[in-house]
């Protein structure tokens, strides 16, 4: 079961990389037939940033819980933070993509919140 969870997590990371580096919006193409339109959970200026927060939060929670008892736990945290920054910064050079400060903040906050929730879980269950 552990191996399956790790495969799902690594596949999710690959999916995240693909949708972040694709020139345009894959979801915009699927939902609206428009590669330049980004779907948002909440309408307004920070709607897509909420998408970033939610996705990074869930992928970080899943990964950190999967590697909870592994020596790779800290390395995974650093990897997720680096990925959150790197993928957003690369959008500076990708056509039809834009670097957004709020998206970067959403990425980082998603990872950090997941980490704190996992740490609280460890404290409450005395697995530290």
SSE topology:
Blueprint: H1 2-21, H2 26-32, H3 47-66, H4 73-90, H5 101-125
Helix pairs in contact: 1-3, 3-4, 3-5, 4-5
Structure description:
- With 128 residues, this protein is mostly helical.
- 70% of the residues lie in helices and 0% in strands.
- It has one domain.
- The protein has helices at 2-21, 26-32, 47-66, 73-90, 101-125.
- Helix 1 packs antiparallel against helix 3.
Number of strands: 0
The number of helices is: 5
Tell me the fraction of residues in β-strands, as a range: under 5%
Count of discrete structural domains? 1
Give the H and E element order. HHHHH
Ends distance: 23 Å
SS class? mainly alpha
Major pleated sheet: none
What is the percent of helical residues?
over 70%
Quaternary structure of the protein: single chain
Characteristics:
single chain; 128 residues; mainly alpha; 70% helix; elongated
Please outline what is shown here.
With 128 residues, the protein is mainly alpha-helical. Helices cover 70% and strands 0% of the residues.
